[in-house]
Amino acid sequence: MINRKLAVLSSAGFLVLATACGESSNAVEKKTESTTQSAEGTVKTSTESKQVGTTLEAKSETKTDTPSGIVKARTEIFIGTVTIFEPGKKIEVLTGEKTTHGFQLDDKSVVYSVDGSAAVGKRVTVTDETGDDKVRRLSVKIGG
User: Quick one: which of 103, 130, 135, 144 has the fewest CB in 10 Å?
Assistant: First the structure.
């Protein structure tokens, strides 16, 4: 297996680390971290993504240190193929390297929207967001 790593520090202060692994896998992994100052306070964001072929798994966490306290948010994005879909109940998406991600739509802490043409075999983008209010927001859109 061949491992290649590349680290680049951009002029904006972002550290980007990309890893391409092995001859049998065409996975590209990236990590970024940034810290910025705004009128609301200090904002720290870390992002990780893994792309295999045309599929994607990405995770972003943001922490804002404000005068009234720390505000956190998490966003995950999955681009892949629907393998299980029960409208109003659950959806499962297959991403690179045969990884599946399941989402319960009937959980009382979940607010969701699903494109009307979502079905098994369709390519979708799932966005999963959670903030300090602990409400999980799922969005399923066709394509990606």
Answer: 135
3 pLDDT more than 50: no
- pLDDT band for position 8 (50/70/90)? very low
In degrees rounded to 5, what are phi and psi of residue 57? -125, 120
> Mean pLDDT for the chain?
86
CB 118 within 8 A of CB 85: yes
Instruction: Please state whether the predicted TM-score (pTM) of the whole model is above 0.85.
Output: no
Instruction: Judge whether 140 and 85 are in contact, CB under 8 Å.
Output: no
Token digits of residue 100: 């599946």
Q: Supply the DSSP string of 16-85, one letter for each residue.
A: EEEEEE-SS--EEEEEEEEEEEETTEEEEEEEEEEEETTEEEEEEEEEEEETTEEEEEEEEEEEEEEEEE
What is the total count of domains within the chain? 1
